[in-house]
Design goal:
Blueprint: E1 2-4, E2 18-22, H1 27-38, E3 42-47, E4 61-65, H2 71-85, E5 90-93, H3 120-140, E6 147-152, H4 164-187, E7 191-198, H5 209-215, H6 223-235, E8 243-247, E9 250-253, H7 255-267, H8 274-283
Parallel strand pairs: 2-3, 2-5, 3-4, 5-6, 6-7, 7-8
Antiparallel strand pairs: 1-9, 8-9
């Protein structure tokens, strides 16, 4: 497993960059906003909640009220960023919420009819993330210098988790990030796509998370630890298609060192990957 360090000087290249991120008013998003501003970047933050009053006049920060589950809101976020700065260098699809759905006990409406389980978390944490990345690609692919997209996954996308909607979303983020990075590379699109998979981190995913963690004697990592990983993926031009596991403030690349090597072992020597088979199918001349 390739563990690495993040040096402050390595992040200095973000000075002057334009970064769009979602969920920037609290938790990991807020820590990332503050870090980027301290590095001299300009930040366009989309969130349903405004930043704290003390930050509304912060130079370099533009807040746009955004519900990532709403396509019109997301479209407006990117349009305003483009209009204000003329370009978009980096995007951090970060917005998310905590578990919502109960798949073992369906609720009923006033007439006693069974109701569909809520998909609110999936709409925000997966569909909203996919739409954020798609808009990022739209704006960045026309720039000669391309850009960088960082996707907020979770270590829960690597393991079973009893919070099923959260687990589903984060497994989906991992699959989306791995696939989009491969597709961008094949298409020659000058955009780097990387995925973060942090373990328990101080955030607003659960109410009073800090108090809950104290109650079980577990210490989550600070939001800044994950913010630094997000900034690193924006800054390091060699990062493409990587999956970064963040736990206890340590950073490990696991796509090239764990995930894909595990698949290579499972499929067996000499067998083509599913992606290789798809490549061959796409190369078959149309009849």
């Amino acid at each position: 497993m390739a563990e690495f360090l993040i040096k402050n000087e390595d992040l200095s290249v973000l000075k002057g960059k334009v970064v769009v991120l979602t969920g920037g008013s609290s938790g990991i998003g807020l820590a990332t906003v503050n870090l980027l501003l301290s590095l001299g970047a300009s930040v366009v933050s989309g969130d349903v909640n405004p930043p704290a009053a003390s930050e509304t006049e912060t130079p370099g920060l533009l807040y746009v009220k955004t519900n990532v589950a709403n396509w019109g809101d997301l479209r407006a976020l990117f349009e305003k960023a483009k209009q204000h700065h003329g370009r978009i260098d980096c995007v951090f699809a970060n917005a998310g919420v905590g578990p919502r759905a109960n798949y073992l006990a369906l609720e009923t409406d006033e007439e006693g009819n069974l109701q569909e389980p809520t998909h609110e978390l999936l709409d925000i944490g997966l569909r909203g993330l996919i739409n954020t990345a798609s808009l990022a690609v739209h704006y960045m692919k026309e720039q000669p210098e391309g850009g960088s997209i960082v996707l907020m996954g979770s270590s829960t996308g690597l393991q079973p988790l009893r919070a099923v909607d959260y687990s589903t979303a984060k497994h989906g983020v991992l699959g989306f990030g791995r696939g989009l990075a491969r597709l961008a590379g094949v298409a020659g699109v000058p955009i780097r796509i990387n995925t973060l998979m942090p373990s328990w981190t101080m955030s607003n995913v659960l109410p009073d998370l800090e108090g809950l963690m104290r109650g079980i004697s577990h210490v989550p990592q600070p939001a800044l630890a994950v913010a630094r990983a997000a900034a690193h993926l924006m800054a390091d031009a060699s990062r493409q298609g990587d999956v970064i596991f963040v736990a206890d403030g340590t950073y490990k690349e696991i796509e090239k060192t764990v995930l894909y090597p595990a698949y290579e072992t499972i499929k067996g020597e000499g067998n083509p990957s599913d992606d290789e088979v798809l490549k061959r199918l796409l190369e078959v001349p149309a009849q």
